Amino acid sequence: MGRAAVVRLLHALGVIAVVVTLTFALARLLPGDPFASIADHPSVDAAWRARLRTTYGFDEPLLAQFVRWCGAVLRGDLGYSFSAQRPVRELLAHALPWTLLLSSVALTVGGVLGIALGSGQAVRRGGWADRLTGSTTLVLASIPDVVVATAVLVLFGQRLRWFPIGGATGLDGGGAGDVARHLVLPAATLALLVAVTLARFHRAAMVRGADADYLLAARASGLSRWRIFWRHALPNAIAPTLTVIGVLLPILLTGTIFVEKVFAWPGMGSVLANAVLARDYHVVTAVALLSTTAVVVASAAIDALLAWLDPRTRAR
Amino acid sequence: MTARLRRDPAFVLAAAILGAWVAVALLAPQLAPYPSDLQLDLTRLRESAPSAAHWFGTDGVSRDVLSRLLVGARVTLLMGAIAVGTSLGLGVLWGSAAALSPLWLDRLLMRTIDACLAFPRLVLLLSVAAAFGQLPPIPLAVVLGATGWFGTARLVRAELRALAERSWVVAARALGAPEPRILRRHVLPALVGPLAVAASLALAAVVPLEAGLTFLGFGVRAPAASWGSLLAEAADRPDALWWMVLFPALALVSVVASATVVGDRLRRHFDLGDRA
Q1: Is the CA virtual torsion B194, B199, B202, B203 positive or negative?
Q2: Distance from CA of A146 to the nearest CA of B (A)
Q3: Residues of chain A where predicted confidence (pLDDT) is lower than 50
Q4: DSSP string of A48-64?
Q5: CA distances (Å), B271 to each of A200, B194, B202, B243, B266, in order?
Q6: CATH fold of A88-315, please?
Q7: Does domain B3-27+63-275 correspond to CATH entry 1.10.1160.10?
Q8: Which residue of A has its CA nearest to B208?
Q9: In chain B, where are the structural domains located?
Q10: What is the predicted pLDDT for the residue at B17?
Q11: What is the pLDDT at residue B19?
Q12: What's the confidence (pLDDT) of residue A172?
């Protein structure tokens, strides 16, 4: 396993290196710089403007800027947010736990629900329950994330008033119970989005494996349906589904941004949306870098998990 | 299109829905009961719920929502088509460049794709939005397409690499057919299926993305109206203006679900498995 793991790690590092370069390019090659809104204001004196750019190194050659930027990122210095008037790192340190809380709850609930739905469909393949679930998940997966979030908010937050509709805590900033009540609607929305997408992939994975020889053999040897499902069909469909979860992570992040925005959840998505409105580059770059790195690390972790679960993938 | 697909009711229904929307988009001004930009009666007809005269209600400045929805189909579908065209074009270019490159360059090109695939698409779009601010619909559609071609590039490369080994291509080469002829007669036709799958799935991805982006305030902006901007106009009071959420959402769902079904069935038809 050693050699394969090293190769996979190097691959992930290579991807992160490309990501870092692309993020830098994106931020610097697009028009304007972080000072555009402040420094290009007509009332700002030209000399001061030039000094501002020199101070922050924006007059250096691109390569020198790149090297300096990489060094800063490695030290954990992500720049300064001009709109929030505080270091980006501080801003993100406040937002990140909220996003991690929201997305981990949603991924767990949605993952289990999606796999359960997909498995149930595959076991009763072609029956009315399969077709009903299939069309329901298709329709739900086709609704834009923001509309799902808005519908949940209107129905359970405004009409039924079961749960609070915005923010992560009440005005008096209550304890864990308060956060949990605020978490219900955004997490349920995100879990639903994860579940409907995953159910479709998982059903396909189970169905594709349904004609496999080992299942035929299991049936022929008289094992019960239940045992075949738990011992043979499900474990073999888990690998492709795990792979899909890896591919789904960027999509999950997109959903998180929309859901956080609709429910005013104080996480990375809200930070990003506000930063874009304020054209606050340092924040946008930092979020892009962080979220992409998270995706790369997570998919490397999933690959490692797959290798552990399935000896065949280790050989390659 | 073969008989097997034509006999599949789900595929036929989905394709018919997409076709109907294209027809609606083309004929929108004729079909719309009122001019879509006309403020009918600012004092009495603002935000009125669906009625016999206005099936889908009216908006905040007394415009007929049904008319705006029909005309909005033009913006939504045109943007979808441009975005899909852009992403297919870029994907084919990059993918075939990689397939034709020496090994080291191929590796570099594909690693770049790996990295791009790790970027959450919305984060990428928002970075561009942060740089350019508000974009008009057509450049926005190009940007939407330019952030969604990485998967297509991978698919095209894989298909081309596989095709180069296929018996008929090898046979044509052995018979001394010139490379451009092999490409035109034997390779490109085999790419049509995978590309049709990629196009339908790209459409299913890009339409809700435009709606969401518009909803966040970075997408289509007045006076242009897409289904996303109808939603966005109701964003502050979705409960009170339910007809401005429900009907555009239904329109979006019909297009996205149909495109997904078409893509799925085509994928099964061309036996692509997990590749597209």
Answers
A1: negative
A2: 6
A3: 316
A4: HHHHHHHHTTTTS-HHH
A5: 18, 9, 18, 41, 8
A6: MetI-like fold (1.10.3720)
A7: no
A8: A144
A9: 3-27+63-275
A10: 93
A11: 93
A12: 61
pTM flag (> 0.95): no
The two three-digit tokens of residue B133, written as one number = 């601010």
The predicted-structure confidence for B259-272, as pLDDT tens digits, reads as follows: 988 988 888 888 76
State both tokens at B38.
């006309």
What whole-number distance in Å separates Cα of residue A1 and Cα of residue A305? 12
What is the ipTM score, two decimals?
Answer: 0.78
| Shortest CA gap B253–chain A (Å) | 5
B116 near A CB under 8 A: yes
- Which B residues 222-261 touch A at CB under 8 Å? 228, 231, 235, 238-239, 242, 245, 249, 252-253, 256-257, 260-261
Exposure string of A102-127, with b = 16+ CB inside 10 Å and e = fewer, is bbebbbebbbebbbebbbbbbbeeee
How far apart CA B78 and CA B72 sit, in angstroms, is 10
A31 to chain B, closest Cα gap in Å: 6
- In Å, how far are B27, B65, B73 from B53, measured between CA atoms? 21, 11, 21
- pLDDT digit string (tens) for B62-97? 788 888 889 889 989 999 999 999 999 999 999 989
Task: Please tell me which residue of chain B has the smallest CA distance to A146.
Answer: B212
At A174, give phi and psi (nearest 5°): -65, -175
Residues of chain A with Cβ-Cβ distance to B107 below 8 Å are: none
Among B119, B128, B217, beta carbon nearest to A250: B119
Calculate the dihedral angle through the C-alpha atoms of B155, B161, B162, B168, rounding to the nearest 10 degrees.
130
Tokens 């492709």, located at residue:
A240
Check residues B222 and A64 and name the one with the higher pLDDT.
Answer: A64
Q: Which chain A residues are Cβ-neighbours of B123 within 8 angstroms? A: 253-254, 257, 272, 287-288, 291-292
Q: What single-letter amino acid sits at A290? A: L
Report the Cα A34 to chain-centroid distance in Å.
Answer: 26
Chain A environment of B261 (Cβ under 8 Å): 138
Terminus-to-terminus CA distance in chain A, angstroms? 10
Tokens of B39: 């403020």
Of A98, A95, A79, give the one whose Cα is nearest residue A87: A79
Backbone φ/ψ region at B262: left (φ over 0), alpha (ψ -120 to 50), beta: alpha
